Amino acid sequence: MLDFIGHALHSVGERFDEWRKHQQAYRELAALDDRALADIGITRSEIPFILSHVSDPSRVRALPAANENGRHAA
Predict the structure, then answer these.
(1) How many structural domains comprise the chain?
(2) Which phi and psi angles does 37 have, rounded to 5°?
(3) How many distinct helices (H) and strands (E) make up the chain?
(4) Residues forming beta bridges with residue 22, ordered by sequence position
(5) Is 69 part of any domain?
(6) Is the dihedral angle over the CA atoms 59, 60, 62, 63 positive or is it negative?
(7) Sorting pLDDT into bands at 50, 70 and 90, what band is 60?
(8) Domain limits for position 32
(9) What CA–CA distance (Å, rounded) separates 6 from 4?
C-alpha cells in the first residue's frame, strides 16, 4: 500500500514539474515582442500549439534580451 502511495506522489510530482516547465516556456515566449517571435518563425497565436507538441518544454529557449540598441545579442 505504501508503495502505491509513494508511486502516486511521485507521479503527481512529475506532472507538476512538467506543468511548471510548460508555464515557464510560455511566459518566456509570450514576453517576446512580435518581431522577435517572427525572427524565430512563429506568431504569438502559435505559442500554445507549439508548446502542446513539444515533449520537453524546458528545451524551448527564448531569444536573448535585446540590448540598449534594440538589437538582440549574438
Answers:
(1) 1
(2) -65, -40
(3) 3, 0
(4) none
(5) no
(6) positive
(7) low
(8) 2-59
(9) 5
CA distances from 42 to 7, 14, 16, 28, 38 (A): 38, 29, 27, 14, 5
Do residues 34 and 7 touch, judged by C-beta distance below 8 A?
no
| 16/42 Cα distance (integer angstroms) | 27
71 domain residue, yes or no: no
Return d(Cα 62, Cα 25) in angstroms, integer.
8
The tens digit of pLDDT for each residue in 14-26 reads 999 999 999 999 9
Residue appearing with cell numbers 504569438: 44
* Chain mean position to CA 4: 31
Amino acid letter, 15 = R
Distance CA 48, CA 29 (A): 10
